[in-house]
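hey all, quick one before standup. I had two proteins in the batch that finished overnight and I want to keep them in one place so we stop losing track of which output belongs to which input. First protein below, input sequence then structure tokens straight from the run.
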Amino acid sequence: MPILFLAVSLFLGAMARDGVDRWIDATVLPPTLAETSVEVRDRNGGMLRVFMVGNGIWRLRPRLPDVDPEFVRMLVRYEDKRFWSHAGIDPLAMLRAAGQAVGNGRAVSGGSTLTMQVARLLEDGSTGKWAGKLRQIRLALALERHLDKQEILTIYLTHAPYGGNLEGIRAAALAWFGKEPRRLTPAESALLVALPQSPETRRPDRHPEQARVVRDRVLSRLRAQGVLAGSEAASASTVALPTRMQPFPRLAPHLADRVVADRPEARRHDLTLDARVQAAMERLVGAAARQAGRNLSAALVAVDHRTGEIVASVGSPAYDAGDGRQGFVDMTRAIRSPGSTLKPLIYGLAFDRGLVHPETLIHDGPVSFGTYAPRNFDGQFRGDVRIRAALQLSLNIPVVKLAQALGPARVMAALERSGAEVQLPGGAPGLAIALGGVGISLHDLVQGYGALARGGQGMLLRSSLSDAPRTGERLMSDVASWQVGDILSGLAPPPGAPDRVLAYKTGTSYGHRDAWAVGFDGRHVIGVWMGRADGTPVPGAFGGDLAAPVLFEAFGRLKTAFDPLPPPPPATLIVAAADLPEPLKRFRPQDARTAGPGQAPRLVFPPEGAVLPALEGSVPLKLAGGQAPFLVMANGVPVARQVRDAEIQVPSPGPGFSTFVIVDRNGLSDRVTVRLD
């Protein structure tokens, strides 16, 4: 009989066990993957911007290895000391809680495990009713069968409430202590252990006394369990509590908005920006705009021109400014008139085509091109001036003459090669583009100056570390770009700024709507724009007065010392004005488009883009038109003077791409670019 009873008992127990197993296996699990905040980080992994999840919650995805292990140990010991060994429920803890409730006539402690708390958080369920508790037990047992302990703990650290709209350990550590939870003090850990049990009544900013009591209770129990030393717990209990939530990082908000809109599926975006530099530039732009006047906006872009990486991008003085500055408008991408800041490009193209040299004379006097009669900004004329002085003084008439000789279409083509998106006010480009008669963004203008800083080789800007570097097209030769930089480095700096450390140019658009300053040293290029976001004129605003001081200050905040500008390329023609080849001594305002038949010189061989063998160290050239004698230059270096024959051999510059320029005695020119094998 006893044997039969034992057999029946074992059979019924097995049936019950199998029934419980089937009951657990049939549990429908809620989703364990929750939406977490999109994070935008800098080049070093530092936080730039955090976005709320759809329901207005701060919930950042945690990684268990990135959470302070001492906090995890304190949490488990305080909340669920058998967490690593139980199967989802802790019968001993439940019996203890039940016995305390019976003995005291009320609930003194809970019997919920961390897994049961995860079950409640996933379903947002109640703990006060038997049906809710039974559901948590069933779900906890099911979770343990499908997930490992690290995964369960990670879910808790993602969803645990910490007051207000904070969920998860990372949001809590950032809001209450201003740091990631990699390293927490015992006082900080104890508060974060206690908060989730009653996050609203224990908030240190609203209920500091209650928060102190529960924090010290955690410290006392962990000291009693040997988790904390007595002196450590005593010291932690004296630490002041946080009195407010700290704001989440919001650096580079305009750029962050743009990268998130471009890749909405990504939860993390790693940018090329440097958070330290970005914060410094935002403070600088904000202060400059406030000092400049009411309703004025400003923007700044700083780039490492060796790589094209943007290190700082400030779209406005304040993202959410309600003072009329329209801070929500990203002025780094707004299309505005560049004023005189395009002049260096035109001079560089003129150098590259052999039209002029920095020491060439050009006449600054009354001139008209049909109905277009440009004037200098101050209305004065200076007569014959060197090209170097014409650019440094930002004279209008000389640069329009060069634009007319080049052809406005060639200037526009160069802008497009730089990667810029340029807007014309209407129709085909005209000579007014030389004085800012186009629309361009600060981002694209800085990109163009980056090509000048890189020896004429374009580099497309990038803001995401996931984007591969992209080399742009060549705008001009290294000689021409160095000549431009050398001239711009000779501009007088703002009062108190160092001299000849920066090649820079300022600009003021028509009607004083835009004030610009763009400059570069041996490593970085920075552009500054100031004005009103709505395009309203700002009387008396000049790029030299408003933007240039900000430019120099930006370089000072970017680094401790300027990187030296590069030396001249070996092929650079550095001579006094008197020693220039005759066609380069004076610019004559004629070009191939206006010259009569046969007057403009042409290089009829080799054709543009040809691939030629370098025969015995020389290259054959065939000339047509123009008036002798001719000057022939290879890559900016004179290789033949006083040429009168139509067919000549010139020394080979060596393998690779080379540009040959022919200039006749009237200063008219032609050029071809070929590859020599």
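OK second protein, same deal, sequence then tokens:
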Amino acid sequence: MTGQPHLAAVERKLHVPQDQAAWSTYAPRFERLAAAELRAQDVPAWLAEWSALSAELQDAGSKLTVHADLHTDDDAIQGRYKTFLAEVAPQIERANHALTEKLLAVPGYVPAPDFALNYRRFRDEAALFREANVDLGVVHNEQKNRHSVITGNQKVRLGGEELTLPRAKQRLDSPDRARREEAWHALQASQLEVAPELDAVMLDLIATRTRLARNADEANYRDLRWKELDRVDYSPADCAAFHAAVRDEVVPPLGELVGEIAGRLGLESVRPWDYNRNNLLDPDGREGLRPFQTGAELEALAQRAFETLDPGLAARFGQMREGGLLDLESRPGKMTHAYCSYFPTTNEPFVLMNVVGTAEDVRVLFHEVGHAFHGFYSGDAQPLVWNRWSPIEFVEIPSMAMEFLTLDHLGHVFNDEELTRYRRKQLEGVIAFLPWAAQMDAFQHWLYAEAGEHVSVADLDAKWLELDRTFHPFVNWEGLDEAARAKGWQYYHIFQVPFYYIEYAMCYLAAVGLWRAARQDPAAALERYKTALRLGNTVSVPELYRAAGTEFRFDREHIRGLMAFLKEQLA
């Protein structure tokens, strides 16, 4: 599926009728729920009605968001999305808060075991609610959308061509060092071109986030965000210990690994264009694997992989292919990130990517479709919309585990030598990712809990450079202008989903554990995977990890043990 028929199916899936994007359609139903006499025995039916209403609104919001990300250069589509954020989203927040307070006030109500955790979360959310933050939240969303528009329309001029960011980044995988360097300089120039705009957006976001925290009577934005994200199983101190463990247990072996590759390639040192954490250089100087050319080919090869892995997963992916729930290819005006969205009324996930034909695209597709499976299975098992998906500390396990669980099902994509390379890249990718994750998390802890509200762009740049030198000391920047290096913090998650990043590291560690178990008993590991997905939001984070067959740990000893396993597998 590619070209116009595919795009037409996507547009149909994302269409939101005018009345479904208007608050007037939903307001009477909220009013009825708010006015209803509510006794303890009435709560289950009342919750079901509220859940169905929330699902409809989530549908509309998700579809408008995805549509805007596919058309960052279309003023009409952007305008419709902004109108929803400004006129409907605040009303949803106020109405949901009123219903939450009504639920919490029901005398004698004891939530069922599968709703107990969400009842506690409702109570905590109600305590954080401030009317002043409703309108300020509109401003916050508008500022984040400015980032999407700027980066979605970003171009790279390279070799007489104007390329999208994903296509330009593809050149960084070339075995030709001169070609890599040329691409790297072009990407740096593009980044510096938009950097002043992104600097301004970030300063506005910091000011807004500081006000949000102050309005909620929190000492800083980290404290507010900690509660918003329901982080009850670990503390900021645990995160700081993770940063130190990665610095000591992962950075040195990563430096050795990168140095060995450089030595085999005859490089005198590792320059910035020689290091791509998503795809380390091939030690034999071979071209990067190019397993497909079009989005349709990528869909087909993934379909065959899922068919050999599990018929149920294959059927789900087939549903996505046929239902206009995949948009994979890179186009001008399309937001450059990859993600999975979700439409709860139909229990359908939607995957957006920007593929250019690389093996890395194969990995990312399995990752995003792992998220999609999470939506499908939790949606099947959990009628209430709040019980679907899972806490964010688990939500990356379905995706990252799928990267590993498909490793033995790609014989139709790669020959034996290529498959060995692909598997090696997967293992190297975990090692290379952990320092980046620690750096991203450490930067945000500093920014929101230590730097203070009057932090400057120069402060942001300086802190990022300090952290980059700590977590990537093996990259040689001698003689280069580090202005673009200092802008490494201008990354999607910093703008769009603050403090959501350490979860990737937690879940990668768990995914490696799942893969280790799957090598002993693949069927049992896959069944545990599905069981954990079906639990959704009904049990705690440690319980979800145990259901999947692993532990909720990211301490030094655990990291050291998994690093030993990874190095053993690479050897």
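Flagging for whoever picks this up: Residues 247 and 562 are 15 Å apart (CA to CA). The longest helix spans residues 177-215.
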